[in-house]
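Troubleshooting: if your tokenizer reports a length mismatch, compare your output against this known-good record of 331 residues.
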Amino acid sequence: MFHNFTFSPEPDHMINVTVENFETEVVAASSQVPVLVDFWAPWCGPCKVIGPILEKVETDYAGRFKLVKIDSDEQQELSQAFGIRSIPTCVLMVDGKPVDGFMGAKPESEIKAFLDKHVPSPEALEAQSDAEDAQALIAAGDPKAALHKLHEALTINPGNDDARYDYVKLLIENDMFEDAEAALAPALAEIPRQLRFEALGQFLASIQFVMGDPRGTWTAEQFDLLIATNKRDFDTRLAKARVLLVNGDWTAAMDELLEIIMRDKAWNDALPRKTYVAILELLTPPKPKVDPLATGKSAGGIEIAGKAAAVQDPQAQMVASYRRKLSMALN
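Known-good structure output:
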């Protein structure tokens, strides 16, 4: 059927994946950039048709995805792990997991349409680069330059939620509360709201309360005198919790909020619970990148020798403890 085609030789730069380099070239690499895995075989005519097209598309996309090849005859363990039934089959890997794929020798236009559903646009990549630069600037102690980079990232890609979160958080940390409120507004208008943006909103509301309410300058003793006369003085307890929160006394703030929740879960439209949950969210350490080597199994189901024991840090343990306290108070 394909005898009229002139086949191009296999390119020198093409990465041929085996069981030995699968974790590095596919799983680990896909946490940085989407990886398109082309399952093929030397005897397969359609494979030789689609191969040069895939290489051209990889060049056109200029690093927005990575192309690798797996010889399904030589690497039968990988083929079986992915459930390959016919070739050519292409599987797209993102963050160590297969997210989509297609079979057969598709034309260039269809391949690009397939990739565009998953591969970041040049604008998104530029915005992501700005956001990464901002993190380096924060670490270097230059918040002004970091804010500029994050603002630039959001201008390019307003849908970059990670950049928006970092931008609002940095604005709050630098006492730019009006700017923070404006930058947070689009995220709070979304339905459903992301918990992390809800948390920043509650934190900002507490700051605004402390700045605008006379009780914002009260000492703990002033609050406690009032609370001692009326354990159900929820308004005073909430004010105290907000002052503690803004001053960075997170656990004391949650303890005070818990006293309200245990007595009246629904008081003030459940604001104490919402504030408590916001603190938990703000304190929760970011999830580390999943290391396939630590799970004992790769994304493709390949068994790997050696497993690393997960060690929970003290802050994560504290957050888990306060989550349990909230769960008990609500049940």
